[in-house]
């Protein structure tokens, strides 16, 4: 069996659902503040935070492993290895929090893999804690072995993390293709009178499903599939409660509650971090027409 098909099998392990949902509930209980969750998702960065946060602990653990590989290392090198492990443990705290926030908003199959990823990383951190303890107690050899065990587990956790992103599309922008596959010319979306005020409705622009919303004289057209995980925004709810957008209307995704500004598709609340693609709109002979904007994140309409 190829290693990657073996990784794919994890997503089929339904027996993981119970512990995964227990972990998800724990994460929600601990991370109740939405603004804090937004910070952990990376909404402010416009990119998932977790992949960036893991760089420091992984790098520190790797360097500690390299130093430990020298048999003739002296007291200075030993101290350096211990400091690197300490740095890795410390910086793994925000990385773990960011990963936990993303995990809690993933779908079932992603959570199964995510749970194994978390167990591997948890075992790695435990190994490093033991490594530090044994080193400080004078058991240098046991400490080095625990460090290498931690490094192997970190690599396994990293492999699963990559699999979560590249095979299971966790954290990727699910709406990225829209500006490339939607037709460049204006597309008729039906009569303006068919649109009920402030009621989202689904239409097609070529092969691309879009959500159309009329708010008085304003018309908004956004890609229908949410950038977080393809949830149908046309089944979402309108919101004017956003702080940073003032009274500008927003649309809330029905799946995990991401909130997008209708004016430019910008993210008000995660877990989405990428803006929702928007479309130019116009009305010709009483018919609404839309044309995709090539660059997401700019105001819609006009
Ligand atoms: S699909 Fe997750 S917030 Fe929209």
From TrEMBL:
<dbReference type="InterPro" id="IPR019251">
    <property type="entry name" value="DUF2231_TM"/>
</dbReference>
<dbReference type="GO" id="GO:0051537">
    <property type="term" value="F:2 iron, 2 sulfur cluster binding"/>
</dbReference>
<keyword id="KW-0001">2Fe-2S</keyword>
<dbReference type="GO" id="GO:0016705">
    <property type="term" value="F:oxidoreductase activity, acting on paired donors, with incorporation or reduction of molecular oxygen"/>
</dbReference>
<dbReference type="InterPro" id="IPR017941">
    <property type="entry name" value="Rieske_2Fe-2S"/>
</dbReference>
<keyword id="KW-0411">Iron-sulfur</keyword>
<protein>
    <submittedName>
        <fullName>Nitrite reductase/ring-hydroxylating ferredoxin subunit/uncharacterized membrane protein</fullName>
    </submittedName>
</protein>
<dbReference type="InterPro" id="IPR036922">
    <property type="entry name" value="Rieske_2Fe-2S_sf"/>
</dbReference>
<keyword id="KW-0479">Metal-binding</keyword>
<dbReference type="GO" id="GO:0046872">
    <property type="term" value="F:metal ion binding"/>
</dbReference>
<dbReference type="Pfam" id="PF09990">
    <property type="entry name" value="DUF2231"/>
</dbReference>
<feature type="domain" description="Rieske">
    <location>
        <begin position="187"/>
        <end position="290"/>
    </location>
</feature>
<keyword id="KW-0408">Iron</keyword>
<dbReference type="Pfam" id="PF00355">
    <property type="entry name" value="Rieske"/>
</dbReference>
<dbReference type="GO" id="GO:0004497">
    <property type="term" value="F:monooxygenase activity"/>
</dbReference>
